[in-house]
Amino acid sequence: MSAVTRPTRKVALAVAVLAVIGGMTACSSASPAPEGSGSTGGTLTTQFAGVPISLNPALGGSGGSAIFTSLPYDSLIYQTGDGELIPDLATDWTLSDDNTKLTLTLRDGVKFASGEVMDADAVKASLEYAIDAGGGNARYAGPVDSIEATADDTVEITYSSAYPDAPYYLTQYWSVGQIIGPDGLADPDSLLTSSDGTGQYSYSASDSVTGSTYTYVRNDDYFNPDAIQYDKVVVKVIGDPSAVSSAITTGQVDFGSASPTTAGSATAAGLDLVTAPFFTWGLTMADTQGAISPELKDPDVRKAIAMAIDRDSLANALDADFTHPNGQIGADGIDGYVDGFGFEYDVAKAKSLLADAGYPNGFELTVLTENILDSQTTISQAIAGDLGKIGITVNLEVKNSVPDFIQAALSKEYPALIWPVVGTNSAQVLTNFTQPGVTNPFGNTDPTLDDLYGQAQSSTDAAARSELYEQITKAANDVAWFAPVISTDNIFVVGSKVENVTASALNPNPMPQAPDAQYAWKHAAE
Amino acid sequence: MVRLIVNRLLLSIVLVVISSIAIFFLMSLVPGDPARSILGAAATPDSIERLRQQLGLDQPLLAQYGSWLLGALRGDLGESVFTGDQVVTLILARVPVTASLILLSTLVIAALGTALGLLSAVRGGVLGKVLDVVSLVGLALPSYWVAILLVALVAVALRIFPATGYFAFADDPGRWLLGLILPVAALSLGGVTIVAKQMRDSAMDVLARDYIRVLRATGVRESSIVLKHVLRNSALPSLTVVGLTVVGSLTGAVFVENVFVLPGLGTLVTQATTSHDLPVVLGVGVFFTLFVIVVNLAIDLLYGVLNPKVRVS
């Protein structure tokens, strides 16, 4: 008798345990989200790969990392996923004919989390604070000469030189445009544990775990309640692409970034991908004066290097779906991209150019790179291998962290380096090589490029400016400071409970909230 | 016993100072600059220098360390250079996660390892050989790899357990346990096999002793012999191994927490290390050092409980 009953009890116990586990699992995926498209409420859980640089918007990050501050802080202007600029705190804005003065008309009846009214004085104070706070993005405020509150609802920003991109840099992706309330400005340290913006959400420190989970709760005083789609937004910090993939596949996270490798498993699981051209990777030949590598002083040598790189093979090797061969400074889709233009792969011509320049047997070139970002190791090795075909021996100096790489790049000890550039038009991309920074440590300047850049900045006609952007693209290849290689997409995985996520070359970092509901992420139809 | 505890506490101060010196100067050798990490590639040299001064990074290394040590002796471990949060606050917020992981893992290692080892010693035969093989495999498999495998198979493919995340015990004990099952399994596998192997060898040694034969000859029940005599006498060496695996599981926890996205001390110290957040790295280092001291003290005290000879000495 007992021989029969004991196994039966064990089986029953096992079934009970599995039932409990199954029930608990079912509970774990349940979220109090409303059902179906068009409904609002519930929780949106999204992912970002790194911790926020700061929760104070003036010191925070740009691009995708702006999610930590753009949820609680409205920007003056909002950029949609398609790249269009639409009203946010500013209902209207105009640039003067010479692109040196931006006049913003502010929305009426908006209040900060503290209860203070958002007016011209508050915006002026916030803009001035962001410029002076010492954040890494302060430079994108532009050549600001003065900021004036000319009326309760009007702010005028005067620039010392033409700055046509001013409205773009006042969007939610840049620190300067996210407006902080007077109370927050009076006590900036308070912005690390609470928020004082006008945004759809308020930061909830009590529901957050620093470095891991950042929780934002609905702001019931938001100026357009109909635009709010979720009661709560949770941003989880998950750096490992595999963990991101697992979390989205199992429904624990609704949106997250992906690598080419994990994108495949996401699509196999029936999830949607949103992609947008982002980085252009290439070899920056910074030492154009030949201070360290005299060979790089010759433009023909630089062009030979650019022509020796087999872009198609590298793009295929990395991932043809999300990596695109590119022979010009900007990615396909940005303003100034020229169809069919770019450095061609021609080893024979590259060798000929090198021989004519006096280097028939090539030379040695030290190239700085790092091994953290995306596929940089593969790109670096491919460039080194291709340059070997024309006799140039590349000595790769690999850094193991981004800060270390930046420090080395600025040291002026490396004649060339591998690093991605990005911008929504070719003039923005060009500034990577004409303004001081990682990709221009030696302070290169070129009168033709400066002239074209100046013309583009001053131009008030969109078509004429686009034409100038294209000329910049071509002129950049003429000086050949940068040997572009590939463009890579930003890849995002969207869970089954979310829809209306858009991204483009002009805006490759989707954000969930928007001042107008038609641009916001929404609950997907069941 | 009191003297033992006092001695260990005194030793802990010395160890904390030594380990903090080691961490501080090793971190100073790591290339990179926190100010540059914070401000990014677009920052100007002026703004970087200004931030370096604000953070005290322009001071000589010895001065920086001295300042930290003085604060630490007062219980102030400083602030994160990134978030401005108190290091103590950051650590305390993460302790429940890592403590849950380590505690459950220790229980699994001790209970399952002991049971398997004892069973193998008593039953012998195929089970013993299987345990030998599994022990080797368990030792060879890194917890990080096991964690990824468990996520792919059990969480993503079978959807039995959550792939990532942590729930506080106070909020929902059921989801707390559910979320920790896979991480604990990944973290315990190696320890279970080591303890089982140690337990088996010790128990077989005890089983071969004369007094066991005498007990059997006098008619004492086998279960009583195993549980009262063999288990107690073979537990001491296993206890040492359990202690070592608990200390070793700190390292494993760093990896496992990252795979399962658990907001514990492992992920905190990983983020802090990659971003050159020295106060946080030092704070976690001090905490880990104290943890090792406490575990060793607990093992010594347990030795005394299990072995009267140790108590007397």
UniProtKB/TrEMBL annotation, chain B:
<dbReference type="Pfam" id="PF19300">
    <property type="entry name" value="BPD_transp_1_N"/>
</dbReference>
<feature type="transmembrane region" description="Helical">
    <location>
        <begin position="99"/>
        <end position="121"/>
    </location>
</feature>
<feature type="transmembrane region" description="Helical">
    <location>
        <begin position="9"/>
        <end position="30"/>
    </location>
</feature>
<protein>
    <submittedName>
        <fullName>ABC transporter permease</fullName>
    </submittedName>
</protein>
<keyword id="KW-1003">Cell membrane</keyword>
<keyword id="KW-1133">Transmembrane helix</keyword>
<dbReference type="Pfam" id="PF00528">
    <property type="entry name" value="BPD_transp_1"/>
</dbReference>
<keyword id="KW-0813">Transport</keyword>
<dbReference type="GO" id="GO:0055085">
    <property type="term" value="P:transmembrane transport"/>
</dbReference>
<dbReference type="InterPro" id="IPR045621">
    <property type="entry name" value="BPD_transp_1_N"/>
</dbReference>
<dbReference type="InterPro" id="IPR035906">
    <property type="entry name" value="MetI-like_sf"/>
</dbReference>
<feature type="transmembrane region" description="Helical">
    <location>
        <begin position="280"/>
        <end position="306"/>
    </location>
</feature>
<feature type="transmembrane region" description="Helical">
    <location>
        <begin position="133"/>
        <end position="156"/>
    </location>
</feature>
<dbReference type="GO" id="GO:0005886">
    <property type="term" value="C:plasma membrane"/>
</dbReference>
<dbReference type="InterPro" id="IPR000515">
    <property type="entry name" value="MetI-like"/>
</dbReference>
<keyword id="KW-0812">Transmembrane</keyword>
<feature type="transmembrane region" description="Helical">
    <location>
        <begin position="238"/>
        <end position="260"/>
    </location>
</feature>
<comment type="similarity">
    <text>Belongs to the binding-protein-dependent transport system permease family.</text>
</comment>
<keyword id="KW-0472">Membrane</keyword>
<feature type="transmembrane region" description="Helical">
    <location>
        <begin position="176"/>
        <end position="196"/>
    </location>
</feature>
<feature type="domain" description="ABC transmembrane type-1">
    <location>
        <begin position="95"/>
        <end position="303"/>
    </location>
</feature>
